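Please fill in the sequence for the structure shown.

STRUCTURE ENCODING:
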């Protein structure tokens, strides 16, 4: 990841090579920090307000001081303007510091990965991995924190097995989500996706797909589904802020067909995101 711009609360823009966190910040010591990843289209962060709202909710659930959403929004603007490129990745962080001083707010802008369009053209291969259904509040369901080691390990395991990514299922084989994505599949004109009540992340792009699907003539059903429902679908895809809508062409060793929904939703998402 090549950093193009960094903005820090109380300081404004700083050199991307300059250290900005204390060594005893709990974000480093314990992974206690909230963050959001936002795709920037034409120098405009897509659905920034929704991302900031989710960050504030995550901070509250983790037990951090209340997130300064206004400051984070201003830092986002400064960093995006300083990066001076049309399309990029914006990352926002809210850390508690060392627990004695003020919290730290950060906005980082980096280049957009270049390989996702090629992966979308080919279609991604997924493997199913055992995950945990976050049913209890202390498991922090739906929280986006910097305690991300398990998510990264899942992506690494998928690549070790020759796949592109993973999808988590619980002990009963219920489909949950990907390490950094929400999962969808289609039968006829109906789209299926796991319900938020399963403790999955309420993806901002997931919400956008829910809104866009109706305009394209699809019914959407949110619920609790076994892995076999996904494996037997007419088509499947994932959604996330940076990858957008990504077709799935293989689950474990089972091929999945390409279909119209992923391409239609991708086009609709891009059209909304790039609309002036």
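FILLED IN BY: designer on duty
SEQUENCE:
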């Amino acid at each position: 990841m090549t950093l193009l711009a960094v903005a820090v609360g109380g300081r404004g823009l700083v050199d991307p090579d300059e250290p900005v966190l204390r060594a005893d910040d709990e974000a480093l010591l314990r992974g206690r920090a909230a963050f959001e990843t936002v795709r920037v289209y034409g120098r405009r962060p897509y659905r920034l307000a929704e991302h900031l709202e989710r960050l504030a909710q995550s901070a509250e659930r983790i037990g951090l001081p209340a997130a300064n959403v206004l400051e984070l929004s201003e830092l986002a603007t400064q960093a995006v303007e300083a990066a001076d490129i049309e399309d990029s990745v914006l990352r926002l962080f809210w850390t508690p510091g060392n627990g004695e001083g003020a919290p730290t707010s950060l906005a980082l802008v980096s280049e957009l990965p270049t390989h996702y369009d090629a992966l979308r053209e080919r279609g991604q291969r997924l493997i199913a991995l055992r995950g945990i259904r976050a049913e209890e509040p202390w498991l922090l369901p739906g929280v986006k924190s910097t305690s991300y080691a398990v998510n990264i390990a899942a992506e690494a395991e998928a690549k070790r097995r020759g796949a592109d990514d993973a999808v988590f299922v619980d002990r009963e084989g219920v489909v949950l989500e990907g390490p950094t994505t929400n999962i969808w599949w289609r039968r006829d004109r109906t789209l299926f996706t796991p319900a938020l009540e399963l403790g999955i992340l309420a993806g901002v792009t997931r919400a956008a797909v829910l809104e866009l699907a109706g305009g394209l003539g699809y019914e959407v059903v949110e619920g609790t589904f076994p892995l076999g429902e996904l494996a037997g679908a007419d088509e499947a895809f994932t959604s996330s802020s940076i990858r957008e809508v990504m077709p799935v062409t293989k689950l474990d060793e089972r091929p999945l067909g390409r279909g119209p929904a992923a391409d239609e939703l991708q086009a609709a998402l891009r059209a909304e995101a790039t609309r002036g």
